[in-house]
């Protein structure tokens, strides 16, 4: 019989405030997300101090609204899960302080979670959900990684970016094209009106023989091309399409190589870039030819969100009684936190 567990998830690692309620018996009961895109757009990127202050304003009202909408009370919570890291230190501290304050008052556990672990597990929110083990292509912000996921806390890093991640490549090249923030979605929209091949950009580390990534060379190539050829409004969509095609080709090739090396047939794509339509189409076709299946979280859970935190917290709470102790108000955050350390720590 399934143990009844109700977890409140709080995500404040960067520029989105996310809250959610997850019940191990009934699944996701509800979630809310407030994006700070409009706040940071004028600066062309995230301003950490502004992000932290906005999390302070938004988190508690979002939690109260979620509880009211789902008809749940604070007394029904079994734990509060929050993002402990990695992320912006100030933003992380906001979520951690609120989570521990609530947990201390309610005499329940406060669970500090790894942001990337939550992304790895986010496809479990989809239907059908993948079974363990699977390969995860994690493309979130400054992270591009290939991970073998054997289960909760069973993560083997197969490859990662050695410089700019895929998300950074999208954002930085979008800025070179004069597009607004956030750059990734803006570049994808522009690319939809163009055709790749009009320009020819490098596919970094495509034939490196390993599962690592590097996108700094692509950014430099785009910078050089823009300076030398100054593409006009009619040419920019074609350049955007070539940028997108270069990134997607590398991501898809490395992900399929990881399946080949491990002998697994399930691939999970998680993180913001996982919402890219060109990537989804290419991976689906290539995986089908190899008899593999690709899983994605629902689009609303590709970017940072509270649902993945609540889910990961519920799975952690179910898995181990070692972390099921009431909060003592002693906590820290980890702006830098390597994913592969989780197995040793928990």
Description:
The chain has 346 residues and is of the alpha/beta class. The two termini are 25 Å apart. The radius of gyration is 20 Å and the shape is globular. It has a 5-stranded mixed beta sheet with strand order 3-2-1-4-5, sandwiched between helices. It is 42% helix and 19% strand. The chain folds into 2 domains: 6-120 and 302-345, ATPase, nucleotide binding domain (Nucleotidyltransferase, domain 5, 2-Layer Sandwich), CATH 3.30.420.40; 132-296, ATPase, nucleotide binding domain (Nucleotidyltransferase, domain 5, 2-Layer Sandwich).
Give the averaged pLDDT, no decimals. 93
Provide the helix percentage.
40-55%
Classification by helices and strands: alpha/beta
Taken from the alpha-carbon principal axes, the silhouette is globular
Classify the beta-strand content into a percent band: 15-25%
The first-level CATH class of the largest domain is given as Alpha Beta
Examine the coordinates and then state which fold CATH places here, giving the name of the CATH topology of the largest domain.
Answer: Nucleotidyltransferase, domain 5
Total strands: 10
CATH superfamily of the largest domain: ATPase, nucleotide binding domain
Could you give a short account of the major beta sheet? 5 strands, mixed
Per-chain topology:
Layout: E1 6-11, E2 16-23, E3 27-35, H1 37-41, H2 48-70, E4 79-85, H3 89-106, E5 110-114, H4 115-121, E6 134-140, E7 143-151, E8 154-160, H5 166-176, H6 183-191, H7 216-229, H8 236-262, E9 266-270, H9 277-289, E10 293-295, H10 306-319, H11 342-345
Parallel strand pairs: 1-4, 4-5, 6-9, 9-10
Antiparallel strand pairs: 1-2, 2-3, 6-7, 7-8
Helix pairs in contact: 2-3, 4-10, 5-6, 5-7, 5-8, 6-8, 8-9
């Amino acid at each position: 019989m399934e143990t009844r567990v109700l977890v409140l998830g709080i995500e404040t690692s960067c520029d989105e405030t996310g809250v959610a309620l997850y019940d191990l018996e009934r699944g996701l009961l509800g979630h809310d997300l407030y994006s700070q895109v409009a706040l940071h757009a004028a600066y062309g990127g995230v301003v950490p101090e502004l992000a932290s202050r906005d999390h302070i304003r938004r988190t508690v009202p979002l939690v109260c609204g979620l509880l009211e909408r789902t008809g749940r009370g604070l007394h029904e919570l079994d734990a509060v899960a929050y993002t402990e890291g990695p992320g912006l230190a100030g933003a992380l501290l906001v979520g951690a302080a609120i989570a521990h304050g609530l947990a201390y008052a309610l005499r329940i556990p406060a669970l500090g979670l790894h942001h990337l672990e939550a992304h790895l597990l986010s496809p479990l929110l989809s239907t059908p959900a993948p079974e363990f083990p699977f390969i995860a292509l994690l493309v979130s912000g400054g992270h591009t990684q290939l991970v073998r996921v054997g289960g909760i806390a069973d993560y083997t890093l197969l490859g990662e970016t050695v410089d700019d991640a895929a998300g950074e490549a999208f954002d930085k090249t979008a800025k070179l094209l004069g597009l607004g923030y956030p750059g990734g979605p803006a570049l994808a929209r522009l690319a939809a009106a163009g055709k790749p091949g009009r320009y020819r950009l490098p596919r970094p580390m495509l034939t490196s023989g390993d599962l690592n990534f590097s996108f700094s060379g692509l950014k430099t190539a785009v910078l050089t091309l823009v300076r030398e050829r100054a593409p006009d409004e009619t040419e920019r969509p074609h350049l955007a399409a070539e940028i997108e095609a270069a990134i997607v080709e590398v991501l898809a090739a490395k992900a399929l190589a990881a399946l080949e090396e491990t002998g697994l047939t399930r691939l999970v794509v998680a993180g913001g870039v996982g919402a890219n339509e060109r990537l989804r189409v290419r991976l689906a076709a290539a995986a089908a030819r190899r008899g593999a299946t690709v899983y994605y979280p629902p689009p609303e859970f590709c970017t940072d969100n509270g649902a993945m935190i609540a889910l990961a917290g519920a799975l952690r709470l179910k898995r181990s009684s070692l972390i099921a102790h009431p909060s003592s108000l002693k906590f820290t955050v980890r702006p830098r936190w390597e994913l592969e350390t989780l197995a040793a720590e928990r």
